[in-house]
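Quarterly update from the structural biology core.
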Amino acid sequence: MSRLPSLPGLQGTPSRRSLLLGSLGGAAALLLTACGSSGSSGSSSSDGSPSGGEISPSMQGQSGPYQGVYLGRTFDKPAVTLTDTSGKPFDLVARTAGKAMLLYFGYTHCPDVCPTTMGDIAVAVSKLPKAQQSEIDVVFVTTDPARDTPAAIRSWLDAFNPAFIGLTGDIQTIIAAAKSVGVYVAAPVKGQEPVHGAQTLGYLPSDNKAHLLYTSGTTTAVFEHDVPLLIKGVRA
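Predicted structure, tokenized:
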């Protein structure tokens, strides 16, 4: 598997501590992760299923030309204005309209899943022809805004790709934005690592909707295969 050298926040062999929330049979499963913590925990209902509107196996459909997991229903981009790494308001829907997009919620102090995911995406984007590299927005939304200042996010993302978009804001606004696209994010608890859904959502430029899901552990090769299709707007 291709990797960026010296991934920030990643030391030694990645140790993904994840809680399996469901099975897709032969397909990948949805993961909820507390990156680098001694254990994982998430909100669940009395029957043990995830609560808060997360993407569930029943929402996921069959594969097609993409190697990512098809969503049985599409998700609009979160209708939210956050703060970018220059400290300015960033209207997510307006600023990414008409472009392919990969959306991920995580935090810069994560020792394993978050930098590995950003690294794999960065390698895939770097393999595109130069003219195509600007045709996809990679958006990273922090789930730890108290520690992840705009400057800290910018420095972290620059190690992967300076064009990646980093966003922060009020944690409740971020939680609501994540919930709107089926991603679980919990408010950070002092002394514990943040808990967040480890999936990346893939949006087509033609309708600005998420059609694809990439779980934690998705390889660089999968992103290399799928990103050009997302840019071209190939339908699911």
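The chain is about 25% helix and 20% strand.
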